[in-house]
Amino acid sequence: MPLPVKDTQPVERQLLRDVVYQRLHEGILDGTLEPGETLLDEKLTAWLGVSRTPVREALMKLADIGLVEMAPNRYTRVAPIDLRAIDEAIYTSGILHEHAARTAVGSMDAATIGRLERFAKNIKKHAKSKDLPALGRSLNDFFLEFERSTGNTVLVTVSEGLSPQLLRYISVWQLPFGTDDIPGKVAEIAEAARAHDAEKAGELIHALYEPARKQFLDEYRRTDAEIDENPIV
Q1: Model pTM?
Q2: pLDDT, tens digit, for every residue of 175-188?
């Protein structure tokens, strides 16, 4: 997809690298910048209205989280969608969200519960309108509240690091999830949080992610016999 000639909103001067990063991050996740698309410095600087330095810094940061691929003197491009990486991210995120809910829901404060309920409403709205990028962001915001409530910074960092792959997946929405079921399931999780029922919240999150967990195990995990025969991959 060709880049716009000029962004309609000029980039703010403060925290320039972060602003450029956010624009490019959003452009990749919402499909403005397509998988495999070559990213040329001169076109990006013209689009964003900035110098080359913050663009390169933002691209390197995006490469660190797997959204951009960089080969010196060859290319810089939007990373192709890696379905295995996405499956692994979904599988791992489900485990982390479930653990976080079981850890944090029992003592979750009213402000956090209020945010969960607000995100749940947004999820319902975006699912109804089939706005998949917005739905993905709201789902991401909803589940990260559980990690943040644990006070475990490592857990938060790992979960946030998995988010880009999940958001790319949701933008092109394939199995294992269908949008019609999501709002009701999320609302049940929010209700369990309001009741401070950590066990139920964990069970509901486990059930939500179970199809992805099963798909991952069926398709990617070697059998015990295969591991015994050749322990090292």
Answers
A1: 0.74
A2: 445 556 889 999 99
